[in-house]
Design brief:
The protein has four helices and 14 strands. The protein has a seven-stranded antiparallel beta sheet with strand order 4-3-7-1-2-6-5. It is an enzyme of class 2 (transferase).
């Protein structure tokens, strides 16, 4: 599990094809790797990956064809948001994330509003129903609060701190991003479905 509070901005330094899968080498920037163990999960732009090799400044991870088919941004050398897995003793500063991407969104608006930046994202219709005003959503692994929703598009505000400490500052109109919706919304939907199934049984 993760919180969506980015701990460092790293860099995908090499992408190696292995059939239809890939292997990544990722520079970890300022991320503290001293407590990382082989097999630990590290969230990379919202995607939970397993560290198969690591040192003080980098780690390697395999990415399957399936993961590549439902995410964006892992198959090219670029800056990425990094977060180590949550420990039970950690503060939950954002919201609970699994690192399992629900869909890929596209930036349709990115402009300054006073000291912040207004970011609007169009998401697949299949996941738009899980996004609600004042609810939580993760964009490339960053926990954010939804300000508005109109059909399949939602908006968030990025404060200067978020822009400075994540890779979101490099986005532009047309950029594609990994989206993970709030898990609570999914469970509520399933509970409602279960009740309807019981009533019709």
């Amino acid at each position: 599990m993760f919180t969506g509070i980015i701990q460092a901005v790293g860099q995908i330094s090499t992408v190696t094809s292995i059939g239809e899968d890939i292997k990544l080498s990722i520079g970890t920037g300022s991320l503290d790797m001293s407590d990382v163990a082989l097999g630990d999960s590290i969230c990379v732009n919202g995607v939970c990956l397993t560290a198969i090799e690591f040192d003080a400044h980098s780690f390697k991870a395999d990415v399957s064809k399936e993961t590549l088919s439902c995410t964006v941004g892992l198959d090219t050398e670029r800056a990425v948001n990094l977060e180590k897995a949550l420990r039970l003793s950690d503060r939950l500063g954002g919201h609970l994330l699994s690192g399992h991407v629900d869909g890929v969104g596209q930036i349709v608006r990115f402009e300054p509003v006073e000291a912040s930046m207004l970011l609007s994202v169009r998401v697949p219709h299949s996941i738009a129903r899980y996004i609600a005003v004042k609810g939580s959503v993760a964009i490339d692994g960053v926990s954010l609060t939804v300000n508005s929703v109109e059909k399949d598009t939602f908006s968030v505000n990025l404060i200067p701190h978020t822009l400075e400490h994540t890779s979101l500052k490099s986005l532009g109109i047309g950029s594609r991003v990994n989206i993970e919706v709030d898990q609570i919304a999914r469970y509520l939907e399933r509970m409602a479905q279960w009740n309807n199934e019981d009533e019709s049984a």
